[in-house]
Amino acid sequence: RLQGRGGKGVKGATPKVGDEAAIITVSSTHRDIFLFTNRGRVFALKGHVIPEPRTGKGRLASQFISLENGESVVAMKDRHLQGASFVFFITARGVAKRLPAGELENLTRAGRRVLSLDDGDEIARVRFTSGEEEILMVTAKGQALRVFEDEFRPLGRQARGVRGIRLKAGDSVVGCDIVKPGHQVLLVSELGVGKRTAFDEFTTHHRATGGVRAMRISSKTGLLVGAWGLMDEDQIIVMTNRGRVIRMNVDEVSTLGRTATGYRVVKVADGDMVADISVIRSGEGEGE
Which domains does the chain have, with CATH numbers? Predict the structure, then answer.
């Protein structure tokens, strides 16, 4: 159900002791999905095998697919590519890669490696693109870089990728989405502080540069957890590490400039943090 800004949310997935809710997505049990892991592998899975009840304990990804030690699912995407020509990857250390979408054809739950990673690096975000998009990459400490995707030449499955954004010491990439001119990007921090900012406030730069400030970060906000492009009629679902879920209209989130801090979007309990956000496009998720 819809709630107002600053709410505590309701109980969603119930993690077992030691588990944390890492990602959330909106899909249908009738749709097949891709599961992308932090280690650069992708698997295809039938949607109907994913648990459906809101308050169920859910199942570990390792019960669906064979994961290596330390490997985890970082993105779940609808297998219907909807005209996408490329898959865009950005890693925590700022390495970016554009993979032809055809490399995902004939994929099964056995999986396939689609990105070679440096030691200690991992995939942060995955997006499907048309080949003519602009991409906004966002870091944990509030920097953002807007860049044309054609600055990244298409590479094969075994390739590493190239520098996407230049990071300062101790920073990492946490968010990435397709720029929608005339619309906004949602930024939310670990402690539930967030805002909407117009994409037009971010000027386009070349890859491998440091970008500009996207949100002012402090001890009261915690680090950013991601960035999501929004349309005017969208809704958002926020999930915390402990499985709390809040759903709201995007107009509940304040619109502010690039350098502003933001306001409380969701009330996070002591010891809990925002884990992920999913955007529900207008017309999706009706009756949920």
Answer: 10-280 (2.120.10.90)
CA pair distance 175, 123, nearest whole angstrom: 11
pTM of the model: 0.85
Backbone angles phi, psi at 97, to 5 degrees: -150, 140
**How far, in Å, are 90, 104, 164 from residue 135 at the CA level?**
10, 21, 10
CA–CA dist 223, 58 (Å, integer) = 27
Taking the C-alpha atoms of residue 284 and residue 105, their distance in angstroms, rounded to an integer, is 26
Q: Output the furthest CA–CA distance in the chain (Å, rounded).
A: 47
CA distance 213 to 75: 25
Is 78 within 8 Å of 29 (Cβ atoms)? Answer: no
pLDDT in tens, 211-252: 999 999 999 999 999 999 998 889 999 999 998 999 999 999
Chain Cα centroid distance, residue 162: 20
